[in-house]
Here is the input.
Amino acid sequence: MKESGLQMYLKNISMENINTALVAYLANLDMVAKTFPEIAENIVKEFSDQRTHLKLIASENYCSLSVQAAMGNLLTDKYAEGYPEHRYYGGCQNIDAIESAAAEEAKLLFGAEYAYVQPHAGADANITAYWAILSAKIEMPALEKIGEMNVSNLTEQQWEALRQKLGNQKLMGLDYYSGGHLTHGYRQNISARMFQTCSYTVDKKTGLLDYDQIEEQALKEKPLILLAGYSAYPRSINFRKFKEIAEKAGAVLMVDMAHFAGLVAGKVFTGDEDPVRWADIVTTTTHKTLRGPRGALILCKKEFADVVNKGCPLVLGGPLPHMMAAKAIAFREAQSKAYQDYAHQVRDNARALADAAMKLGMRLQTGGTDNHLMLIDVQPFGLTGRQAETAMTQCGITLNRNALPFDPNGAWFTSGLRIGTPAVTTLGMKEPEMQEIAEMIYAVLKATKPAKTKSGGQSRTHVEIDSKVKIKTEQKVKDLLKRFVLYPELDLELLKRIYIR
Ligand code: DSN
Here is the structure.
């Protein structure tokens, strides 16, 4: 029988030099490869890509090997619909312990009154939160009025009237082009189909949130939910002001902190900038700045705990116990001093990168950043965001294009690049490296021009990059990533030799 990767490794190493992280990876990959070698191969190829490309995607990070270990095991085999001590399946005692531990850690980390750790993704968390609010504010009072709290006992007419009422509510979130997320009321998303939406935008001149404008709109529209939070807004938010507006308008304040949860956890955003203190319900993903596994979390005031707890079966399928275990690990990691230092460095790095970019002459949306991300306007380079993204990718820099507010190029081509510092900060990079990165980005943008189409026009997708600049940038990325190695305890060359055929 052919030797496994683990056997090959152990044969050539003495006991005292055994690298346990590498052993764990080899054992895992051996098991995967036994059934499906191509999958093991692609895991290693993805590792190779991530180690050799500069990751500037604002919503991505690198989680710890402990988080990864908690995700990949037999916990995936257990059904546990319901919530701790209240399950629709037998034998859930260990999952109860895991879910309760994850929720406790989340409460400690964020100082929250209640935590619900089941949502599988940020979009699921938002839809769950919407329905929890609809339950608390529309369904319960309606049922109380009828004097029947069990919806299964309603007549067809009563049920239809309730359904109509639930479907006739208003959501006021940040417009997609101003940096809001798809689930905040974008028409291509279910959020805009289940609510009437009345999105607010950033100010046309400054690109900033204008609290007076938001208040005026909220008082006029009287939404059920006022939603704050973003996927592409480079500034901090005053949640105390949002709470005041919500109270005046009679709205529930919901915050989607998916992008900046790590900055809240790491105490970069405190006081008025801490959404957990001010909002009724806060949702977040766990894998962005927070640096945990791919998944999500809802935090809320006690008033909403019961309705949030019914996320499954209301919206969600069964919880994913392996992911809840990994969330528990991440929430504990984020309570460390090292994590707080990391979170502060994420913002310091973003500021350093933004300053360096502007000094080089690049135009940044709102003229800088207060958080982990920035938006570069690529129009002065004669490029669309899509072309700029393509050029960066070809030079070893992974980032994504992004619409700018009121973008003339729409959501597909766009006019901007979104850049974030969470991943490079995890690798240990600091301000001097941000200067290097800004110079690389500038050099590539300057050296890129739209490719010609067959008819002689300008392509909005394809580009031509000056080959000398391309080669030089690729080399610079390589040199930088040699100094800041992803998962240095894992021997990538060995993994490649074993699993890439
Ligand atoms: N896809 C995420 C982002 O990149 O911002 C939001 O869900």
